[in-house]
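Hey, I'm writing a tutorial for new members on how sequence and structure tokens pair up, and I'd like a real worked example in the thread rather than a made-up one. If someone can provide the structure for the chain below, I'll link this post from the tutorial.
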Amino acid sequence: MKKIALITGVTGQDGSYLAEFLLKKDYKVFGIKRRSSSFNTKRIDHIYDKKELKDKFQVFYGDLLDGSSLLNIIEEIKPDEIYNLAAQSHVRTSFDVPEYTTDVNALGTLRLLEAIRRLKNKKKIKFYQASTSEIFGNTTSPQSEKTPFKPASPYAISKLYAYWITKNYRDAYNIFAVNGILFNHEGCRRGETFVTRKITSAVARIFHGSNEKIFLGNLNAKRDWGDAEDYTESMWKMLQQKKPDDYVIATGKSYSVREFVREAFSNININIKWKGSGLNEYGYDSKSKKVYIKISKIYFRPTEVYELRGDPRKAKKVLKWKPKTDFKEMVKKMVNFDIDNYGKTNFY
């Protein structure tokens, strides 16, 4: 009998990759998307276009702010696995909309767990909660499952609530619930407001003749950047274990925003050099001397997190998972994708 999976946030980067992954494993996949006045399904439209998947993939309208809609959907489709990937996921934005961020990320997770708890077949359902490396904040790297938490943004704090409520429902109600503490994972479907995709899409436009400059914030912030497609498999593996547990998913290596910029531009044969300091620092082409990178204070967080670098040894040992794509390959893939899709309208 086919397994049934429910994915919240199915129209996002991780949700679309996970839907593809599960369909290849012959799951029947249901997704939840928020109703919107504009279409926001471009990451999954290609799945709809495949006739052979017509009866295997379906999307419901729902919202993490509406517990009754979540319960109704879960009761109707009776999933074996639920992957909660929906969130207000932009850290900088969470400082501007902290209440909304908390309602979606923290209480949205609670609403899903409450829906599972109220079902008679709650022990059948396995629940995956998308946690984040941001819950570690400015702790000493590398961060593992045993590292204390020190969240430094409304986003991270909301995700820490979701982390703890998932553990609590696991212990209190014997629900198979896990936290995947995923470090930064990027790809061609990343939204352009995130710094990595902001850089690679701008590099692509520059390659095609744009004279624009990229405005960035803290160039020295270091992150453990992995490939989003690689990380999808780890989510599924967590729900295939005999016992529920929490796992750090990471590469074990970190790179600064500055290094990401240099690597991205190197793919179009531009060698970026740096001059100045603080808000007056800028990046320029070592040959033409043309300035491509400038700094703006609006992109700095009120509280900065300086380095996040994960320790994935537990995931490697227990889940038999490891990243397949290294940093340079990931950046190259993103730049090439943006170059190849320049000017297209149906574009991630």
